[in-house]
Amino acid sequence: MPGLARLRTFKDMKETPNRAANRPDNRQFAPATGRNRDAIAAVLQRVLPKTGLVVEIGAGSGEHAAYFAPRFPGLAWQPTEPDADGRASIKAWAEAANVPNLRPPLDLDVTRAVWPVTEAGAVFCANMIHIAPWACCLGLMAGAGRILNEGGVLVLYGPFKRDGEHTAPSNADFDAGLKSRDPAWGVRDLSEVTEAALDNGLALEQTVDMPANNLMAIFRR
User: Fold this and answer.
1) Where residue 96 sits, what CATH number does that domain have?
2) pLDDT along the chain (221 residues), means of 10
């Protein structure tokens, strides 16, 4: 799907993940992760199930997976990533974390009708749907609708528009920058995302305002 192959090179337009020169392995670093992970973890603590499988979509560098997995020992954490370099970084972070509930990364293209995971209690996706074509958001919703158990949760993190309007001037600037790179990208309107979710049996349960004009949207099957 156009845009997917480039997803990891543009995980965060402001801060592209990089590999530290003094690291002997494939770990990449996205500075934004260090700033948002605790706020995200606090929400995940409230909404994730206590046991079962969490599938992370577009896990990028793998830093979130390595940070969250040990904080949720009752959950198996399955990172997925369509980019080979990203998967190498995720694998390196998983090896460094050395926690039994963090699984090796899977190659997953959200637009495919069949995913390599068939059942899960939760799906988590950070900073993906605005840095990919709209078809990827639709594919994410379709896939989550297929694999989530009854009562399962889909958690999205990132910037959103509300009622067609940006929530901050910085998000408007970010959106313009995204579209200058690829017209198919852009900050999505929460109402349109919610409609796509409903089409796949997922209802918006709550939203949580996050730092840096981001939002967490929690959907329930």
Assistant:
1) 3.40.50.150
2) 39 44 72 89 98 97 96 98 96 95 97 97 97 98 98 98 96 97 98 98 98 97 97
Calpha distance 212→35 (Å, rounded): 10
For the chain, state the CA radius of gyration.
16
Which element (helix H / strand E) includes 154?
Answer: strand 148-158
- Residue 79 domain flag: yes
The pTM of this model reads 0.90
Question: Total domain count for the chain?
Answer: 1
- What span, in angstroms and rounded, lies between the C-alpha atoms of 34 and 134? 28
Q: Which of 217, 208, 170, 213 is nearest to 190 (CA)?
A: 217
Is 130 within the bounds of a domain?
Answer: yes
Residue reference for tokens 């990919």: 132
Instruction: Judge whether 2 lies within some domain.
Output: no
Comparing CA positions, the residue from 130, 136, 146 lying closest to residue 200 is 146
Listed in sequence order, the residues at least 6 apart from 214 whose beta carbon sits closer than 8 Å to its beta carbon are 36, 157, 158, 159
Q: How many residues does the chain have?
A: 221
Domain hosting 179: range is 7-220
Tokens of 88: 């190498």
